Amino acid sequence: MPRDRNQRTSVTRVMDKIGVVVALLGLLLAVAVAAAAVVRADSTDSMDDVGRRSYSEHTATDAYYGQPAWNWPN
């Protein structure tokens, strides 16, 4: 008996479910990043000028001189 054109195989159903899970994980990651940005903004807003400058200089120094996550081989 030939397959109906609209009949979906179990593989396509599994792939659709995987796609939904990946989309939900992406959404969860976006929400987490947005929440972290709000927390960081709130923490810098509550600082005085001296503390904010020290925090930003420390962050810039760490970003420039910090140990990289991957040491490239020579």
Biggest sheet statistics: none
* Shape designation: elongated
Fraction in beta strands: under 5%
Taking all residues together, what is the mean pLDDT? 76
The tally of helices reads: 2
Radius of gyration: 24 Å
Topology pattern, helix = H, strand = E: HH
Percent in helix:
over 70%
Distance between the termini: 62 Å
Low-confidence stretches: none
Q: Which structural class do you get from the secondary structure elements?
A: mainly alpha
Features:
74 residues; 2 helices; mainly alpha
Descriptive report:
With 74 residues, the chain is an all-alpha fold. It is built from two helices and no strands. It has helices at 10-45, 49-65. The protein starts with 9 loop residues before the first helix and ends in a 9-residue tail after the last helix. 0% of the residues are buried.
Write the layout of secondary structure elements.
Layout: H1 10-45, H2 49-65
Short structural description:
The protein has 74 residues and is mostly helical. Helix content is 72%, strand content 0%.
